[in-house]
Amino acid sequence: MSGPSSRAQRVPTHQGRGWAQDSATSNDWLTSSALDNNWATGLESGTAFLPASTRTSTSSRQALCLWLPTFELRLELVRSPELDTTSVALLSPGESTRRSIWQVSERAYDAGVRPGQLVSQAVSLCTSLTLLEPDPAHYDAAVDTMLEVLTELTPIVEPAGHGRVFLGMDGLGRLFGSPPRLIDRALGSLFQVFPAPLVAATRAGMAPGKFGAWVAAASARSGQPVIVSEEKLTSFFARCPVGALPVDPLVIQRLERLNVQTLGELRRFPEPSLVAQFGEDGKNALAWSTARRIDPVRPWHRPHPIRVSLEFSNPVGLTETLHGALDRLAERALSRPARRGRSVTGVRMGAHLEGGGSWFIETTLREPTSHRERIAAPLRAKMAISPPPKAVETLLLELTSFGAPSAQTSLFDRKTEGGRAAGGYDFNQGEVPVTLRDAVRELKLRLGHSPLYRVVEIDPWSRIPERRHALLSFDP
Amino acid sequence: MSEPSRSHRPRLKPLGQPKAVTVRADEHGEPVHVRMPGKPARRVAVIREQWRIDDEWWRQAISREYRTVVLDDGKVITLYHDLLDGLWYVQRG
User: Cα angle at A150 between A148 and A155, to 5 degrees?
Assistant: First the structure.
């Protein structure tokens, strides 16, 4: 354990440049991406792959930040340990053309490969570079597992990007003891679910507020957590680079051009000057640097999503087939009892790809709906912009957020429950007539499974006959 | 996004899956007699049409010689000779 040490602090900048410039602290792993500090802006907290949180009034002033740099690449190396000592780079997710590098291993970094480089540049710099396709589904599952196990320690858990999570520590001292013991306990929880090398790389920092905890974690070394007390927070921030501030990167660039490198230097400016130059960001930057602003950790609640998936017998690359499968999935998701009486406001579509890797797109609907076409259309549009990079083995659809039912929807649902819905039209819109639903339920009770199937088009123009049509279990 | 376990995940059942049949071919490789599973052998009366499919070389290669044949009982079936495993199959679709 170490407190705020005398050694110079090295904190990743907003653009992630801090680690890249400083191999002493970064050890072996470098991240490209902007270590997004969106948690500071409140509404945008949560990871890039997780739905937005719903806030409650409960919060914790004392924060513990656990940070696993290059979390995604480390997860890949846990899956493929034979790559551990090679030059490895993880590709950026969500791009189909002009792929760029997201995260790189130490060896690749030594060879000149940098996050953000185009693949062609990276390969020309390091011919032995192993490129890995990102697998967001795998990373999400790991984050879910991490949050689940940490929730057993404290109810106030707030994810802030893959590999980084804030824990509310208020009141836990009486249960678990001193701050070092609390940190040990949190890391011990991670040991339950992650392999030891992954947890050993975790950096931990505890301080009042998320900003303090994050700066503490970022300046910590693996196995040497940094704990900062309220009294020492201001002096601790003095050597912190301005790049750590969760403000617009342009503000940071301008500060650096003005030769304002640390928060200590920033504090020398009067607030009116900073506000005049940088507006709200200037005001916030000063508040953080003087420890006047303490952002509490807020519990993160994820609504239970409705998930459906469809596994293809052969990997599918044809857009029309994927569109058809999306329609079927939307119908099934909408017909789930958990969805009834609620409209859908957010959806996410993903796929497991042939040869490994996964792909995702996400959209927020313009208006709440319970109609298949209104859900599928924006996803189709997004898929046209960012199609799956490889053939799809399994297609996934997730209804991630829900709205209150409109008056019409309630009326509609009551009508359906009364058995007066018109069969064909409603069925096409994802609503299954109640009589058919009851019949399937009875058959399932009797036989243990639904014996009904629908014939669906897979690739109707395929030259290979068994690829054209398939049976899909009908289980509303 | 985690999803249902693999065993519970709905899976598409392809229609028109090929079924192995016993075929006696002449010296040119053309089918002469066809015996479907559990049925007596039938003579091929006429070969109506034939075509070849070579596909998916990048995945698991497919190489088939299809023939639409009329059997001596008047039944029309589609046969193919799998050029990779050397077996004959009947297929709907």
Answer: 90
The model carries a pTM of 0.59
Give pLDDT tens digits for A133-181.
888 878 888 888 888 888 888 888 888 877 888 988 888 878 888 888 8
- Each residue of A242-261: pLDDT tens digit? 888 888 889 898 988 988 88
Residues of A in contact with B78 (CB under 8 A): 465
Structure tokens at A130: 């192993």
Q: Half-sphere exposure of A206 toward its Cβ, with a 13 Å CA cutoff? A: 25
B10: closest CA of chain A, how far (Å): 6
Hey, is the C-beta of A354 within 8 angstroms of any chain B C-beta? yes
* Residue among A380, A381, A389 at smallest CA distance from A353: A389
Residue percentage of chain A with pLDDT more than 70:
80
**CB-based contact, B8 to chain A, within 8 Å:** no
Answer whether A473 sits within 8 Å of B91, measured CB to CB: no
Q: Could you tell me if A440 and A474 are in contact, meaning their C-beta atoms sit under 8 angstroms apart?
A: yes
- Name the phi and psi angles at A12, rounded to 5: -60, 135
B16 interface with A at CB cutoff 8 Å: yes
Cross-chain residue pair A466–B93, CB shorter than 8 Å: yes
A348 in contact with B at a CB cutoff of 8 Å? yes
- Assembly ipTM: 0.85
Helix (H), strand (E) at residue A137 = helix A136-151
Do A88 and A129 touch, CB atoms closer than 8 A? yes
A294's tokens: 């303490």
Local confidence band at A94 (pLDDT 50, 70, 90 cut-offs): low
Quick check: A55 pLDDT over 70? no
